[in-house]
Amino acid sequence: MRSWLGPGLIVVVVLVGGGFLEATVDGAREGWFLRAFLVTGLLAVVAYVLLVHHPTRRSLRDYRALQLNYDEQCEVLGSSLDDLRHGDLVAAREPVGGLPEEMGRAVDAASRALAALIQQIQSSSVEVATAAGTVQKISSELASASSQQAAAVVEITATTEELARTAGQIASNASSQAALAAHSEIAGDEGAAALESAVSGVEAVRRHMEAIAGRADTLGSRSREIYRVLDLITEIAQETHILALNAAIEASAAGEHGERFAVVADEVRRLAERSRESVDSVRTHLDEFAGSIRGVVVATEEGTKAAHQVLEGSTHTRGAITQLRSALTDTARAAREISLATQEQGTASDQVVLTLREVSEVVQRIADGLGQYTGAAERLNQLALSIQLLTQSFRIESEHSLKHILARWTRRLRDFSGNLEAVGGVLEDLLEDCPYLELAYLVDLGGSMISFAANRDLVGDREHPGSAAVGQNYADRPWFQALSRDGRAAVTPIYESLLTDDPCFTIAVAVRNADDEMVGILGVDVNLLNWTKI
Amino acid sequence: MNSTQGAILIAMVQEVAPDNPRERFLLVRTGNLNCALPISDVVRVVRMLRTHPVPGSRSHLVGLAQYGGDPMPVLDLQVLAGGGVSNTRHHSTVILGRGRQRGHSILGLAVDEILRVVDLPISVSVGADSDLVGDTVELGGREVKVLNTRHLLLEERDDKGR
């Protein structure tokens, strides 16, 4: 109606103008002017209708058609962009047929480029994680080795310090030993001189002993001669004694005539007896004298022998002292050399200790740095995992896109229709195909678990927790709620698995029937210790 | 004083007793025995003679010696006086004999030591002829057996007679 407002307004203006002119003018000349005005007005109206109104209406129709097409394309583009916003690069490329060719190519190219970029980021994150793991392992080993090395350096330092202290003690002892050896050398000289004096004295004693022995031997010879004389005197006394006895016998036989002779004979006998007693007394004294001489001889012999032994021992002692002096000289020299060497060793040990302390500090810094390096590698690994999780939020046509893989597996579950045995087989096949998954399960729209399968390689013989059981309701889980809300695949943050106690995350995708209606949810728990196998 | 049973009479005597009748003896020692021999039976004292042992003879016979060109038996005084065989060192020989004529029988007594000639009281008995040992007297603080050497000479003569 508004398109007709312009021409109507012109007609109204013309009619109002004609009426005004008719009311104001008189005569024929003014009638002509009125007619001319009306004709012109009519022509203007016709011209307006033909030249303005119709093209405008046609343009408006074209505009409306274009607007409708634009809206449709905007809806398609919005759908694609919405898919892109949700990371579904596969779905984003599907409605490009409804877009203008160039726009469709541009969206398809953009999706492909983005998918390629995501795929590249995904593979790069795996490589980064692998490299980070390697770096972490190596840096851990290096840190451990550095710690051991630091401990070894500390031990070496302590040992070297002990060595330095010992060297100092050795140097001190060697100095004392050198001084003692020098003192002993002097004492050895004095001892040698004293020994020489003692040897001379003993030599003089030995000569005196030999002289005494010679004198005693002479006395012995004289004693033996005296013994022979005494024997002779004894013999004479005995003969005299017998002779006196026989005289007494003869005097007795002579009777009274022999009395006086008997007295003489008895006196002779007494004399002989006294001679014999005197000889016995002399012999006794001589025996004592001879015994003394023998004692002197024995003593002198023993003294001479002892003097010989002393001289012999002195000779040995002199040799020993000479050797001792030589040894003491060598010892003093060696002790001085040892003292100098140990002082140098102590100085070198001190330098070694200083160097080792620096080495210890460097090693400790290296160990600290390696610890930081390990932490950085760990953080890098976490970053790579975060990137991986970020990339897994996209669905791309890739064997490494979990959403895409699961979307493919959902097609095998499309017609499960209560065949739990078949569902279980499919889930087992899924775990076998994806060894990084520790649990796969199918949940109905009410949130109840229909079937599940656990990866025995990861779970082992552990008992399943109560949450992993058929009939268990998952309606309160965020992934279930998100998926129920917009039907798009959901990825959870990282949490600790109840099955393996390892960090993991869950991806849930909708299972749709042939009419694209959601009939269930396929969920998998990804073990993050094996995420690089994705 | 006779004592055939070998009783011991200890008499205090003096070597020279001029107031009392006396008899002269030769005092000898053999082993631990001191014996007094009547000097009237003593011919001579000599040093121990060289003896030749007689096989199968009695223990008191030391052997045969040669004296003055004649064989002479030498007896062990200690064995004869009953002192038994002990450690004796015979240094002298007392030659006994009856009479001083040549051809009379003599015999030797081997003793350790001939001490001296002593005078003993006449009362001291030399015992019977059949006894060798008579009285025992104390002389100078020592016991001295008084011997009857006549007995020996009789036996010796009897032996020669047999």
Automatic annotation (TrEMBL), chain B:
Species source reads Candidatus Sulfomarinibacter kjeldsenii
This protein is called Chemotaxis protein CheW
For this protein, the record's Pfam families field holds:
CheW
Where does the record place the CheW-like domain? 22-158
**Could you state one GO biological process linked to this protein?**
signal transduction
InterPro entries, sorted: CheW-like_dom_sf, CheW-lke_dom
